[in-house]
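Thread: quick sanity check before group meeting

JM: Hey all, I'm pulling together slides for Thursday and realized we never actually wrote out the predicted structure for the chain we discussed last week. Dropping the sequence here so it's in one place. If anyone has concerns about the input, flag it before I start.
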Amino acid sequence: MKKLLICTFLFSLFIPCLFAEEKYEKVFLNAQKLQAAECYKEAALEYKRYLFCADYAPLEHEDQAFIELSRYYHKTGDYTTAINYIKSAINIIKEKNPSSADLEKLYLEHIILLANKSTKDQDWLEREPSILGYINFPVYSQKVKKLAYISLIKSNLENWEWERAQKEFTDFTTLYPDLYTTEEIQKFNKLIEEQKNAKEKNPKLALYLSIIPGLGQTYAGNPKDGLNAFILNASLIAASTYSLITQNYADFILVELELLIRFYKGNLANAEQEAVKYNLEQNEKYAHKMMEIVENSEKEDKKSDK
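JM (edit): ok, ran it. Output follows.
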């Protein structure tokens, strides 16, 4: 009788688990259907519901739910959340003795997310331990190591960390001497040196020069705006001077003085902004040219995969 009671008790525990697992499976399948119907937000909620069930029963598709949530947040631009989900997926899959190809695919997704977060948050990627691990630890494949290096170099270029980018590029080409031609390496280093020696425009100097309307804009590399500012302000100054000479104080006070102050102040602010814009465009130009060189190895990798 005692044995019968024990068996009945264990059976009563086992049966609900079977039904629970079947119920949780339906949640996962529903998430997949919503995803297939391009209802991504609703699918993400269902994947979260499914993962919440892990507190009550073991889940067969837990790793896949984490992966899909990571990809969803990648699409929405929430890279921090996407990174957390992909890391969870990697940790779960590692316990299942996966193939090296499956793991490599997740490592590559993780690196891309890290690079995107670095660009968005202007946070230096080399402070992220994961990227250093991908570069330095021998357990990772050469493909993973290469993408980690490239992402680090590109991140430094995007954030205008020229010396860091040059150092990483030198280390990368030393480790993989066949990835780039001698001409590409020389061109990259030449662009770095050109950028270092390039003279930036001083926004404060542009502001002070604009005491004479248009001179600041011309210094900042925009003579067209400089000419417009000069003509506009000179016209207002001439009109105001004429009103004062002819003692037409009403027009001067009610109309011309307000316009003169407004456009003159605008001329000063515009000159400063033009200098900032010039520096930004120059840095972006150099970064873009160097990025094209760095990305050549990525393109070659994709061709070899095909």
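AS: nice. Confidence is low (pLDDT under 50) at residues 1-20. The chain has 13 helices and no strands.
JM: adding both to the slides.
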